[in-house]
Fold each of these.
Amino acid sequence: METQQPALRTEALCKSFGSLKVTRDVTFELPRGARYALIGPNGAGKTTLINLITGEMRPDSGRILLDGREVTQAPTMARVRQGLTRTFQINTLFPDLTPIEAVLLAICERDRAAGQFWRSLTSHRVAIDESFEILTRLRLAEVATRPTRTLPYGQQRLLEMALALATKPKVLLLDEPAAGVPKDESAALFSVIAALPGDIAVLFIEHDMDIVFSFASRIIVLVSGGVLLEAEPAVVRGDPRVREVYLGKVGHV
Amino acid sequence: MTVEAPTLADPHDWLRRRSRWSVFEIAFWVASLLPFFLFQTYLPLASQIAITALFAVSVDLVLGYAGVVTLGHAMFFGLGAYSAGLISKAGWGEPLTGLIIAGLFAGLVGYIASFIIVRVQHLALIMITLGFCLLTYELANSMSWLTGGTDGLQGVETWPILGVFRFDLWGYAAYGYALAALFLGLVLSRRIVHSSFGLSLRGIRENVRRMPAIGSDYRGHLQKIYTISAVMAGCAGALLTQTTDTVSLDTLSFQRSADVVVMLVLGGTGRLYGAVVGTIIFMVARDQLSDMNPQYWYFWIGLLLMVVVLLMPRGILGSLAQLARRRD
Ligand SMILES: Nc1ncnc2c1ncn2[C@@H]1O[C@H](COP(=O)(O)OP(=O)(O)OP(=O)(O)O)[C@@H](O)[C@H]1O
Ligand SMILES: [Mg+2]
């Protein structure tokens, strides 16, 4: 084997919408097993950065490497199959499917079994068990057979996570997984994240500083599309620039 | 008896129950045999219904399950119809092989068309499907040396089914043949929609944006179902040719493409039998109304369509199913 490659690496990513520069020269590395937070004020370009990394948008310049292999031009689907998965800030679910169906769908896609039209769904027994196990882990077992659209918002957020976990990611990008979720529930959600296998690299966007400081081993601060600072939580906490542009405004800490 | 504490639904059991044959389904297939004994005068209408229902089911697979709105599916119906007619005119009147070849030919065209279909969405998609249909229609119209143009193909000869069942004047053999094909088509479609592939089609319909994010090659799925659907529509067209001994240009018409969508919406999309029920209602209504009032019968279809869309957004069968579920 080669020397240990970072699970994810971006090199000088740039993206503009017209004259608005939303991503400026973003370079960072996410090592295996990382628990990194990506923070920054509203409109800083956090979601756009994730869109670039996962291939939903193409960067104007720069490179993206997954496990040392370049994926800058690869379609989203191919990146997911190489272990790069994200969740969405705004629920992007299947309203009419039940959670068990949605997660089973993700697992069948991962196992390349989704194209088998001659084999009955019920015969995928191992996959069904795995789906139910994931839903149980996210405390969704009781609503596993209810249409997604009828679930309360908080449970839909959990399902958003469940779908991502079903792809068995090596790199997991979470875009405000707990957005709009009551504080006690969001703590439960982050304890699931904390309990993920140690070799999964996680990058999460989160506005709640208590959560950021208790779950992140390292923090990337994004301001106006550029990386202002990347450092340990203690350093970020004490940095005057961060206080000014971000923490000061929000009023936490 | 002790009262059990409510337990979590067993996911295996829940999924199995969704794909099981229901009593209504079995009752439907038993009832489908009635025209043989009770309404012999309606046998020709019954086989028209069975053929059109197969066509409607093929549209349901792409429109109802995968959410691909098409206004051009008559293209495949017509291609199947003409292929079957031409094969027979070329001297091979054996119905089963003719049916299969016609279906495969329509499927081949469907596969080629699917490369464009999966790259467009919304209004553009509808227009592309419509465009394909118009194109094929005019092509068939102008190639009258092959297709007979506006006169259509006459005197198509079809040999007895399996060498035994001669196509009779009453239409016993024709209905038996069409019904068997519809049954087979439904069994196959059932298999498809209750597979993992069927689940991914519903995923595409529900939220195509999420599909790549869970690693899905959804365009591949769409191409596959579009091709399967084209084969099925082509078979329906071939059945029409073989049971009526003629092929006319209107097998390829926009009207046919639109009618089948109306039938599907009437019955309810995404439930297979909705396509069948919608076809029965549409065709029986047409038969009855056009006797009374030949010029204006679309008025009533229009009215029915609006009532259903406004009051029963899931279609007639969908609403009935919902009522039944509320009961228990
Ligand atoms: N598709 C787009 N076209 C044009 N401008 C866009 C597009 N997507 C995002 N933007 C703009 O880019 C900037 C960054 O948006 P982005 O959603 O990445 O911010 P964010 O950091 O995720 O914010 P939030 O914390 O509110 O989620 C914003 O000014 C936004 O209006
Ligand atoms: Mg955002």
Note: Chain B touches chain A through 36 residues (CB under 8 Å).
Amino acid sequence: MKKNIVFAILVSAGAFLIQHHVPMVQAEEMGPVHSITLPTIPAELKEGAGKDKVMTLCGICHSPDYIPMQPRLPAKTWDSEVHKMIKVFGAPISDEDAKTISSYLAAQYGTDEK
Amino acid sequence: MKSRFFSRRDFLKTSSSIGMITAFGGIPTDLFASEGKLVRFPEKTDLILLTSRPPQLETPKHFFKELITPNEALFVRWHIANIPTSVDLRTWRLKVGGNTERPLELSMDDLKGLPKVTYTAVIQCAGNGRSFFDPRVPGGQWGNGAMGNITWGGVRLKDILAKVGIKGDSVEVAFNGLDSGPLPTVPDLVKSLPVDKALEEDIIIAYEMNGKPLTMLNGFPARLVVPGWYASYWVKALSDVTVLSKPLETFWMDPAYRIPANPCACVPPGTKPGKTVPINRMNTRSLIIEPSEGNRLPAGKEVAISGLAFSGGYGIKDVVVSVDGGKTWKETKLGKDLGKYSWVQWTLPWKPAQKGKHTLMARATNSIGESQPFDRLWNPAGYMLNNIEKVDVIVG
């Protein structure tokens, strides 16, 4: 029973592996272990002062694509997002870097509203 | 015609990032985020990319023509980046304990040895439709594709809780999964239900979706299913069920996933609620799937207006459709009834006579009279959107 389930899963996982040109792994070798490999999808952020900091520091806990996913937001909303990451989730970001990041976000993904 | 109906290929030609469609800051006009970048993750088909780590993937609109959502098409939503990508069923155990007479560890074989329950239920993210909020709010920018209708198979939570014996002073049951925060400061995703809720008949620990094991990205090897309630409670890759004598206080219970403590779960746009409560039962929704926004229809030829409707556990009594922007309404024909937690498909034949723009609207009512408002509700977190949707089509 167990084995059948694992096999069924590997068939669909296999389709993914082939598509990404990774050698196909035999079902028998995998045993009752169900594994997947996540694809890597580079995030693309707009060019602008502070972009490198954003890519690094805002990419520690999640992909930086959390930023371009957002609609344009007022500068104060971006600033409170940055501080939410620091206060609530413990983002290791200095006050100075937080300022640079907030300015980048307001300039590249902000509204005209202040 | 507006550019929002361009095909996926056109989209990929003009943009390589989902940022393109949201960057203008307005409200998307199509009801689904059908123009985003498509990506393929393991065990899944092409889904719309919101974020890659942790993965948040939305179901493209065409899958909503189906009564049952295929496993490979169901949306994906993780909160914290260390998600399980490998599970060994020889060592995986569901640990049940806390404020109980005895602890218990169950293997997958143990779970499968218990009486099996199967039913169809809508799974919907609390933030489904968030990108239509006005003013817009930060968070996962879902169109309407963070939902699906799945036949779940598993064991009753109450059967498992009966085995461990809940102590009399218990107040909540907490659920934790195999995922964890990328840094120790990121709160682990643990959710809880009041004890009375947790003991309800229909709450299951599901190890099957549509007769197959769960896909890894939808919570392999087992997840909680709380039919009728938002998916934030449906903890994936479940590892621990803990009975508590005090309410759980985590970021994910408070301040996250809270709604204004009033019947509409809403406040005037741009304002903050006073009292809040944990999000819970889903409100009633209906979505027009065909035709799509901006479609051109021939005059004098019969077409079908069709869609789906569901409510938080009370089935659907009727769905009415208007083809004149809400002036007059006609009752639609409901499709196969898969039970009170499932969505139901509906259809109305329509032979448009007059040329020009027509505004189609659909409104569902459930068996206890809950329906949908004309105006979009608003709350700061972008939860529970369920207004009557409008779809504009052009005849002639």
Note: Chain B touches chain A through 53 residues (CB under 8 Å).
